């Protein structure tokens, strides 16, 4: 009789699933106290590292209904705290209010673009906005640089260094 360990069959090291989680940005709505619901934003560890987000950082969360985009911006006062929930991700949760996006299941976001203070990303297609009221348009008037560099699926929209001419 020969016994074979499950760890031998699976192999050692990170699984494809844990690697995907470490690079993802996901949205999820869940029930919190009473009848209230909350929007949970999870940032994978590798993505958080590339954005320089750490456990305890405070972020502001901005939404653009027309463009169907969201933005996470590091702030020093107010905002919501990112907390490490596992070695693979950081998380923050915000009680839903009119004008905020809501999703029916955990969904991964695409189109993640790094900015100097955080990132901009596309909201999933199935996202709906809570209530009839829309948030006021919040965003930058400057278009991202034409020469965006891609790093691990994340576009870098950092401003180009000034030339000494």
Commentary on this structure:
It is globular and about 65 Å long. Strand 1 and strand 2 form a beta hairpin. The strands form three sheets. The protein has a seven-stranded mixed β-sheet, covered by helices on one side. Strands 6-7-2-1-9 form a five-stranded antiparallel β-sheet. Strands 8-12 form a two-stranded antiparallel sheet. The protein contains three helices and 14 strands. The chain has helices at residues 6-10, 16-23, 45-51, and strands spanning 25-31, 37-44, 58-64, 69-75, 80-81, 83-86, 89-95, 101-102, 107-108, 110-115, 118-122, 128-129, 149-151, 154-156. Helices cover 12% and strands 39% of the residues.
First-residue to last-residue Cα separation: 77 Å
Q: Quickly give the structural class.
A: mainly beta
Cα-atom radius of gyration? 18 Å
Range of helix content: 10-25%
Which segments are poorly predicted (pLDDT under 50) over 5 or more consecutive residues? 132-153
Number of domains: 1
What is the helix/strand order?
Answer: HHEEHEEEEEEEEEEEE
Largest sheet, in brief, is: 7 strands, mixed
Mean pLDDT score, rounded?
76
Mind sketching the topology for me?
Blueprint: H1 6-10, H2 16-23, E1 25-31, E2 37-44, H3 45-51, E3 58-64, E4 69-75, E5 80-81, E6 83-86, E7 89-95, E8 101-102, E9 107-108, E10 110-115, E11 118-122, E12 128-129, E13 149-151, E14 154-156
Parallel strand pairs: 10-14
Antiparallel strand pairs: 1-2, 1-9, 2-7, 3-4, 3-5, 4-11, 6-7, 8-12, 10-11, 13-14
């Amino acid at each position: 009789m020969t016994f074979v360990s499950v760890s031998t069959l699976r192999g050692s090291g990170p699984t494809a699933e844990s690697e995907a989680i470490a690079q993802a940005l996901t949205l999820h709505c869940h029930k919190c106290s009473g009848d209230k619901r909350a929007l949970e934003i999870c940032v994978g560890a590798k993505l958080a590292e590339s954005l320089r987000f750490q456990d305890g950082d405070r972020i502001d969360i901005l939404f653009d209904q027309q463009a169907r985009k969201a933005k996470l911006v590091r702030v020093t006062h107010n905002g919501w705290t990112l907390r490490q929930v596992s070695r693979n991700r950081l998380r923050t949760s915000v009680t839903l209010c009119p004008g905020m996006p809501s999703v029916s299941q955990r969904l991964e976001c695409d189109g993640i673009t790094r900015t100097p203070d955080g990132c901009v990303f596309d909201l999933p297609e199935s996202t709906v906005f809570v209530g009839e009221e829309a948030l006021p348009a919040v965003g930058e008037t400057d278009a991202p640089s034409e020469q965006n560099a891609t790093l691990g699926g994340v576009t870098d929209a950092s401003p180009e260094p000034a030339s000494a001419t």
